[in-house]
Write a structure and sequence with these properties.
By secondary structure, the chain is an alpha/beta fold. It is built from 15 helices and 23 strands. Pfam families: Aldedh.
Amino acid sequence: MTAFHKLYIGGDWVDPDSTQRLDVISPSTEDSVGSAPSASRADLDRAVAAARAAFDTGTWPRLSPAERAQHLRRLADGLRAHGSRLSTVITDEAGLPTLASTADSSIGLLTYYADFIERYDFAELRGGAYADVVVRSEPVGVVAAILPWNSPLAIAFMKLAPALAAGCTVVLKVDPLTPLHAFVLGEVLEEIGFPPGVVNILPAERAVSAALVAHPGIDKVSFTGSTATGARVAEICARDLRLYSLELGGKSAAIVLEDADLPTVIPGLAGAACLNNGEACVLQSRVLAPRSRYDEVVDALSDAIAAMPVGDPHDPKTAFGPLISEQHRDRVEGYIASGISEGAQAVLGGGRPQGLSRGWYVEPTVLRNVDNRMRVAQEEIFGPVVSVIPYDTESDAVTIANDTPYGLSGTVWTADFTHGMEIAARIQAGNYGVNTFGMESCAPFGGFKSSGVGRENGPEGFAQFIEKKAVHVPKGTRVNSDGSTS
């Protein structure tokens, strides 16, 4: 067991205000794997005050981009040095297979933004009609970064890396189901001597999270989670005219075109339909297959998923670990039952795997005869459930793919790459793949419609933590990239 007793606030480990604790239960064994303090409203106020002081009077926003980049690279080195421990802790608390619990993407984001700010023009000189104008890029201020329980470290750095690069300070609010990795992060920050108050870590329940969103000391909220909660975050922020960005749910469609070579595309498609135990907002959970090849696609996809091992997430061979909690497993099983009651058939899975009497496991499930109007096709299940939906024409496929409240991700699988790009242009989604699936540090990630507001990653993610200021100067003034004159 990993037990933590203090909170990381203001660069120090401090005693929590409350004696309430979070008991962290392993999704794979149902045993306790650790515990941590549950932050109170007083702890929240202290964390915001520390972040506020670090921004208003501290050095962080006043460092040169090169100096901040150096800190980001040192943090990346610290994550790399503690990578094995972080992976073990995340697998313990989230049930993610070891391949999905590494710090690699976090290290990549820190490295990308360190390089980015060293070449970014923080001051641009524009010639006006009556005066010249220096357009400055300045940090937005104190950021509340609110995390979900799936892929917690990776999602944390989709917020932390650009916010820190911009010069913001952060209160990192971690989910009460998966708090342990964040305490390891705090130890890394302490070990490398990260400037105090720049990152403050709070594990907290829902009431404290809501108070953080509404806190007057917060300038910007960056939230990842459900669409319903995201809408509430937006309402609170709008009331106070506070900036926000939201990365929310998805119900993405993978379109298999008539010309697709199944032995070539099925491995990538199966992985995209099943990543993170099915607990991923970008999951390709609807597979659209041409009616003429429907049975062929169902069989090939089912065979590929059936070959992916289910079991102990610490075993490097495991592809499917458990779901995060017993309550969530019940929810996923309810969706499977709903699909079957509406006429779908489970050609793979549909129950609980044999030989795994402990842990919140669900068999990877493939449903055939799914109509896009069914709940399993319209609502985000967040589990290893794939619905295979037939279509008659490519136009039908595009219509079905877009017939969802969400617009986060999607893929198309075809032997004709140029035609695949044409299909991509017709889909209402923020992240798309042609014969591949993924996310990159350099590219914007976010959704259309109910999948969110704003973008993460790339220059677009950096822009979420920047305010633009126009400074008018006399004609002919020479201005350097950092805003100084010469």
